[in-house]
Specification:
alpha/beta, 23-stranded mixed sheet
């Protein structure tokens, strides 16, 4: 009778709590949460009363029913006491660990200490405070608080059921882990025990109940295996349906996804400028799942995508088999470590396994052969070692295999020839050796092959059968000759053989067979010699040709004019000679032309004006002569970088350079230029670097020079050569307008006048060289106010007076003056002037 009264009181209190929760404002909601806490306390008391009553009755009947009820019985009693009173927990009030909201609903619910029968008002108040709604959420990636809440004993049928879901031989291990309070499995079990939506006393009461139990256990164990909060942990360990948790996709919600990521660092393009054909290179991850005719399919987890979530720790054993229907496991871009769990290979429906860019170690098990449905296997940029297992050949549905940037050793297994659906294979950045197996000639669908930065030294002749192969990277391999089979793979659009230190060969005329080639990279091969074959002109689709830092010699063949698709031509640092062919003017798509450090001669052909898309031209350190074709140069409206220093170019500087609106760098130093610096040049308002040194220029500096307010370097020094008197103007009084200037070199001219005081406002100026001129007056004290100055050279001028104390106390690494000044600094004076040195106070 007492028990029924308690039940009625409980129902009334519950109804009052629900009214407070649903009908009142925010303050009443909190009161409702507190009422809910008191309700559960009351319910626990009721359960205890019921248990005591039943135990007494059983004892009286002589049934021998002791009070030592197991968890299953106590759960049954509690369920019976709650019959008809199923109350949800929308406010999360059953979780009292506010340091870990959403991540630990672990077990305050079953603790006799938390829900005892004490009527102490102070204790009740403390409990109400504990069960109030958390107002803050954890900061992403911070360390999780340890689980300190008392645990709940699990029904034996539950642990037995979980263990039965594992492969044979692992059940006992799971039972041990479930009883280990330090394991993520134990924490996951507590999550289950605190989920009132699950029937834990009869897990197999319905297929859906069992599915939810095993799936939540797996996800909870995964969550608790990471010691830190993830970058986006919303929804996890919440009351939401599992299929709504962040990164989880079930049958009802899954849609194919495409994710684009940039290539890893080892695939970086050449240092100078990347070929245009690669500027948009992105490796695509395409995932599709297969629907099943199963009523549980809408609730079945098919994909876990937690990439870039700042996960850490190791993937736990005895967890993944709880997700037998999993088709896609995406964990790339985290900080996961340790070996892969051995039971990963039991996920026979897995289609996409993406674990790249983590810190995994160990070997790839021969059990990889079980994953016969695998289509994408990404484990690059980890610390895997050992040999690549030959059993991987059983994964015949593979289309994408990324093994790069690990520590794999040995040879590539011949079983790779069975991967007939393979499209992309990345082996680069490993220690694999020898020849690729001839069986790989059967890979008729192979499109991309990356074996650079390995010890692979040979390609089999069977590669001539690879009719789909479009891209191959062989950089930095111990290859001694260019594999002749390459010249037969006419489907190639991208061929990279850079930095082959052992290569000693010539570029064969057979290169002309590769008529579909768009990118050809042969740079950094010191012993690649001979001439550029005229057959190069057959590659009319070629957009990027890198042949720099080799021993190639001879003329640039006129046939290069046939390369009308050419965008990026880099032939620098070779032994090329002869003139630049006028036929090169037909390359109207050209954007980058680098020919520096050769022995090219003659004048620049007028046809260079056809390069209306030109952005950079570098012709330094050759033997070009004659005038610059000013009319043609004026067509380079997109040009940003022009460098022609150290040639023999004479005549005057074309004013058309000032018509180039995008020009950032103009370097014409160390030539034979004569005349004045044209005023029109200062119209190139984006100029940052202007280098006209070591010519035979004369006359004044342009009046409007200081309009070039983006200038960082201005070098007009050493124009007083032979019969030239050099530049003969003064330093502009408004020099302070060049506020970005870092290097100003005007030495060895006939510059006169004084050093303007405005120079002290050039806070970015590092180098000021004005020696060997006709500068008079004194060194302005304002020069000591320049924040960045390192070098001042003003010797061999007509300066007088003292070196300002403001300059002395800067203790410059390089200060050069002469005896015409009173040497008040303890440094910077010629030896013969040291006698006049006066020590100054260097305290600022």
């Amino acid at each position: 009778e007492s028990f029924r009264v308690q039940q009625e009181r409980e129902i009334a209190e519950q109804e009052e709590m629900m009214r407070l929760y649903y009908n009142e404002e925010e303050e009443d909601n909190v009161n409702g949460a507190k009422a809910l806490g008191r309700l559960h306390s009351s319910r626990w008391q009721n359960g205890m009363i019921a248990m005591a009553c039943l135990a007494a009755v059983a004892l009286a009947l002589g049934l021998g029913l002791g009070f030592g009820l197991d968890r299953s019985a106590s759960q049954d009693l509690r369920t019976a006491g709650d019959e008809g009173n199923d109350v949800s927990d929308p406010l999360g009030t059953l979780s009292t660990n506010t340091d870990n909201p959403g991540g630990d609903r672990v077990g305050n619910l079953g603790s006799g200490g938390s829900f005892g029968s004490s009527s102490d008002p102070q204790e009740e108040q403390e409990y109400e405070e504990e069960t109030s709604v958390p107002t803050t959420s954890p900061v992403a990636t911070t360390q999780k608080a340890p689980t300190t809440a008392p645990s709940v004993l699990a029904p034996t049928i539950l642990t037995d059921t979980l263990a039965s879901l594992l492969p044979e031989g692992q059940s006992e291990q799971l039972q041990q882990l479930l009883s280990n309070p330090n394991s993520p499995h134990y924490a996951a079990l507590q999550e289950l025990l605190n989920d009132e939506s699950l029937d834990l006393n009869d897990p197999s009461s319905s297929p859906l109940n069992l599915l939810r139990i095993q799936q939540k256990f797996a996800l909870a164990a995964l969550w608790h295996s990471s010691p830190n909060y993830w970058a986006d942990n919303d929804d996890w360990m919440s009351d939401k349906d599992l299929c709504e948790w962040n990164g989880i996709a079930c049958g009802a919600s899954f849609a194919s996804s495409i994710d684009s990521t940039p290539p890893p660092d080892d695939l970086a393009l050449p240092e100078v400028d990347p070929p245009v054909t690669q500027q948009g290179v992105r490796r695509r991850r395409t995932r599709t799942l297969v629907a099943e005719d199963d009523p549980l399919y809408p609730h079945t987890i098919l994909q876990i995508d937690l990439h870039g979530m700042a996960m850490s720790g190791a993937l736990p054993e005895q967890v993944l088999p709880m997700l037998p229907a999993l088709q896609s496991l995406v964990l790339y871009g985290n900080a996961l470590e340790g070996p892969l769990p051995s039971d990963l290979y039991t996920l026979v429906k897995l289609k996409h396994l993406e674990l790249d860019n983590n810190m995994f170690t160990g070997v790839i098990s021969e059990d990889i052969q079980n994953l016969v449905n695998l289509e994408s296997f990404y484990i690059s940029e980890n610390n895997f070692s050992g040999e690549i297992p030959s059993e991987m050949g059983a994964c015949t549905k593979l289309t994408n295999l990324w093994l790069h940037d690990n520590s794999f050793q040995g040879t590539v297994p011949s079983s790779f020839g069975k991967l007939v659906n393979l499209e992309k294979l990345y082996l680069n950045g490993n220690d694999v050796t020898g020849s690729l197996p001839k069986e790989m000639g059967e890979l008729s669908n192979l499109e991309t092959l990356h074996i650079h930065n390995t010890q692979i030294n040979e390609l089999p002749s069977t590669f001539t059968n690879l009719k789909s192969l479009s891209s191959i990277w062989l950089d930095n391999c111990p290859i001694t000759t260019i594999p002749t089979v390459l010249y037969t793979i006419t489907s190639l659009t991208y061929l990279s053989m850079q930095q082959l230190s052992q290569l000693n060969d010539i570029l064969s005329p057979d290169i002309g067979n590769l008529v579909n080639l768009q990118t050809l990279l042969l740079n950094g091969n010191s012993f690649l010699n001979g001439n550029i074959p005229v057959e190069i002109g057959k590659l009319t689709k070629l957009q990027a040709f890198y042949l720099y830092e080799t021993s190639v010699e001879g003329n640039i063949p006129t046939e290069v004019g046939e390369l009308t698709s050419m965008v990026d031509l880099q032939l620098q640092q070779n032994f090329l000679d002869g003139p630049m062919p006028s036929e090169m003017g037909m390359m109207k798509n050209l954007e980058n032309l680098l020919l520096y450090n050769n022995e090219l001669t003659g004048t620049l052909p007028l046809e260079v004006g056809e390069w209306t898309n030109l952005e950079r031209i570098m012709l330094d350190n050759n033997k070009f002569i004659g005038p610059l074709p000013g009319g043609s140069i004026g067509q380079w409206l997109k040009c940003k970088y022009i460098s022609m220093y150290n040639n023999a170019i004479d005549f005057a500087i074309p004013g058309k350079f000032g018509k180039l609106p995008e020009l950032n760098v103009l370097d014409l130093g160390e030539n034979e230029l004569t005349g004045i610096i044209p005023e029109k040049l200062t119209q190139a308002s984006k100029l940052e670097v202007l280098l006209l040194d070591s010519n035979k220029l004369n006359g004044p500096l342009p009046v409007s020079l200081t309009n070039l307010t983006n200038l960082v370097s201005l070098h007009v020094h050493n124009n007083k050569r032979d019969d030239s008197l050099g530049l003969d103007s003064t330093i502009p009084e408004d020099i302070a307008k060049l506020s970005m200037l870092e290097s100003l070199r005007i030495e060895k001219n006939s510059i006169s006048g004084t050093i303007p005081v405005g120079i002290g406002q050039l806070d970015n100026l590092v180098t000021f060289h004005a020696q060997d001129n006709l500068i008079s007056g004194t060194i302005p004290s304002e020069m000591g106010e320049m924040d960045s100055i390192v070098t001042i050279r003003v010797e061999n001028n007509l300066l007088v007076g003292d070196i300002p104390e403001s300059v002395c106390i800067k203790d410059l690494p390089s200060l050069f003056v002469d005896c015409s000044l009173t040497c008040t600094c303890s440094y910077g004076c010629p030896d013969e002037c040291i006698a006049n040195t006066v020590e100054v106070n260097t305290t600022p």
